[in-house]
Write a structure and sequence with these properties.
Length: 458
């Protein structure tokens, strides 16, 4: 790991493809000398001022051919993103030119950066912790403005400070308990009630943080919502209406959809992955039968279901079979085709799944689609009470739960009348999990998993 920091790395930091501007970034002890070999500033002899855009030319140092005009900006360590010497070369956004700049930099002594290596160096050099590193990647890949806001706050250290505050309270508590044990004659005694108060406060905070993961996962990964119902109830029409485009083929003939189709929509900042699938019922073809089986598997794994019923036809045994099959799944009943004369016994249907929300729509005319989207949010992505932090990753949730469990074990021992030594030992077990959460305790396998998710150049 230390050997890696001795190299100077180079990569394109802007997205692949054509654009007005492209940026090539270097980081490491030789960043500026290498950059000056491939980029000639207008006044070759001048010193490069820090954090200043210097006009110049991309240059093949062997052929002395000028390839492009642009700017060079130098960020001296430790006042840079990586806390190393960093140089950015701003060129026209041609993939050919940017790749050539990287090739020239490698020939001049740099090596290609690995995915996330710039941010890894920022972490290894103490500029950020692992929580902030995860937030940087989350911000880059944000699928909604709400998630971007959360990720930016965490990149700035809001979640890290919350965890640091919990660690400080635990350490202070342990210090008081251990001082009381070591020096019983001094005026340092701490009562069981004082210990209980601190533990309950910490457990409550950590519990709220852990419970925010459901909302965080919805923001980060999106929620899978399967649209299902018997054949010809208007699932594909509803799918297209929610997408506001003709994505699925719609015909009046049953069994048109034989496989599943996925598309994403944003509903008030929450990413929802809609899945349209084959209608449930008696298959008329082996392909349709396979589509129904695949649909069942998808529905079982989905975060929520839109169960579509044709309000213009009487309820059928297939409708009730479907409702019973997915009785324990989060679902919303959608009575479609409300533009036609009603024939379904809606109350009879609702009696089979008490407490389940329902809405009457017309996918064809667009009636109540806005209400449907609002109810999808309320049913599948309930908003938590306003709180300072939301955790976005399962790794974070597992470790927060581990910290909380250690404190709960300490509280349990305290309530059972165990000695303060045992209580302190249980509480102390929370500290390694905090170290893993922030990256203070380094696990190479975990670091590889985190930073390999980054793009090259960040």
């Amino acid at each position: 790991m230390n050997q890696t920091l001795e190299d100077t790395i180079i990569a394109i930091s802007t997205p692949a493809g054509h654009g007005g501007i492209g940026i090539v970034r270097l980081s490491g002890p030789e960043a500026l000398p290498i950059a000056r070999k491939i980029f000639c500033v207008k006044e070759p002899e001048q010193n490069i001022p820090a954090r200043t855009m210097c006009f110049g030319y991309l240059l093949d140092d062997e052929s002395r051919e000028t390839l492009d005009a642009g700017y060079l900006c130098y960020f001296p360590g430790p006042y840079s993103y990586t806390r190393e010497e960093v140089v950015e070369i701003h060129l026209h956004g041609s993939p050919v030119l940017l790749n050539e700049a990287v090739r020239l930099g490698i020939r001049a002594g740099a090596r290609p950066a690995h995915p996330g290596e710039f941010t890894l160096r920022a972490y290894l050099n103490g500029r950020i912790d692992v929580i902030q590193a995860e937030a940087i990647n989350d911000l880059i890949r944000a699928s909604s403005l709400d998630q971007a806001r959360i990720s930016f706050k965490q990149m700035e250290g809001s979640l890290s400070r919350k965890i640091a505050s919990a660690r400080e309270k635990i350490v202070d508590l342990l210090t008081l308990v251990e001082t009381s044990l070591e020096f019983p004659d001094e005026d340092t005694e701490i009562t069981p009630e004082q210990i209980r108060t601190v533990l309950l406060d910490l457990i409550g905070d950590l519990g709220r943080l852990a419970s925010s993961y459901e909302q965080g996962r919805a923001l980060l990964e999106g929620l899978t919502v399967a649209i299902l119902g018997r054949t010809n109830v208007g699932k594909s029409t509803l799918f297209n209406a929610l997408l506001e485009e003709e994505r699925a083929i719609v015909t009046p003939y049953p069994g048109t959809t034989r496989d599943f189709i996925r598309e994403n929509i944003q509903v008030d900042g929450v990413l929802m992955k809609l899945v349209d699938m084959a209608g449930f019922g008696q298959a008329s073809h082996p392909v349709e039968e396979e589509g129904i089986l695949r649909g069942q598997k998808l529905a079982e794994k989905a975060d929520g279901l839109l169960v579509v019923l044709d309000a213009s036809r009487e309820e059928s045994p297939e409708d009730f079979l479907l409702l019973n099959k997915f009785r324990n799944k989060k679902k919303l009943l959608v009575f479609n085709k409300s533009d036609l004369k009603p024939a379904i016994n809606r109350q009879k249907v609702l009696d089979t799944c008490p407490g389940v929300s329902w809405v009457e729509v017309s996918a064809l005319t667009g009636k109540n689609l806005g209400q449907l989207k609002k109810m999808m949010l309320e049913t599948f992505a309930p908003q938590l009470e306003k709180q300072e932090e939301i955790i976005l990753h399962q790794r974070q949730k597992v470790l927060v739960d581990s910290i909380k469990n250690s404190l709960e074990n300490g509280l349990k021992l305290l309530d059972e009348g165990a000695g303060e030594e045992l209580v302190a030992e249980a509480i102390r077990e929370a500290l390694p999990a905090i170290g893993q959460l922030t990256g203070e305790i380094r696990n190479q396998e975990v670091l590889d998993q985190i930073f390999n998710r980054f793009c090259i150049g960040k």
